[in-house]
Write a structure and sequence with these properties.
heterodimer, A: alpha+beta, four-stranded antiparallel sheet, B: 3 helices, 31% strand, elongated
Chain lengths: 144, 86
Amino acid sequence: MSEQRRQILQMLADGKITADEAERLIAALERDQPSASPSDVDPGQKPRPKYLRVVVDSAENFGGDGPGKVNVRVPLQLLRAGVRLASLIPPQALSQANAELAKSGVPIDLTQLKPEHIEELIDHLTEMTVDVDQPDAKVQVFCD
Amino acid sequence: MMPQLVSVRIRNERGRRMRLWIPVLPVLLILSPVLLLALAVAVVACLVWRINALQALHRSWRLLCALRGTRIEIDQNHAAFMFNIR
């Protein structure tokens, strides 16, 4: 995380600026600092990932439908934009969505998903890799 | 920047292939009357739910722009489906 971004988040945590102001500042920061050229990247630091990848490779007998492959690439920018849009949803609608998610066995509290947390979430996603290896299928979830 | 091209490739189990390249901007222009109507409905809905309509439109636009780079490929036996937003 860059120093300027950290300062903005600190100001937000201290209550010096509102969430909307923090979001605007971070957006301005991103505009001012477009994707860094490879020479600008600290060699010790991994470049920021752009995509969330899900790769599934199943063998001949998996599911009885023959071999299968799934390759999904979703831009992380979509995650950011989605969370920012979702932050406009009124709290009562979020409560209803939470209740429906809980009923479906997905106990996620959407009211806790705030735009100011998304950068931290994405930073942590960078370090996340899920590998599921079975004799007849392989699933990988990672960022690149 | 908004997506420019959506490409879809489908191959069925008999090996027949279909490829579609859909230019986004011309399609949006053709659908503009419907989109304007949808926009009006969305603004009214925002006002009813007391959501900042301008902010909602701006963020929806950002969401649309963020779709660029999405790619979904599914291969099953001899059939395949590929969806790509560029």
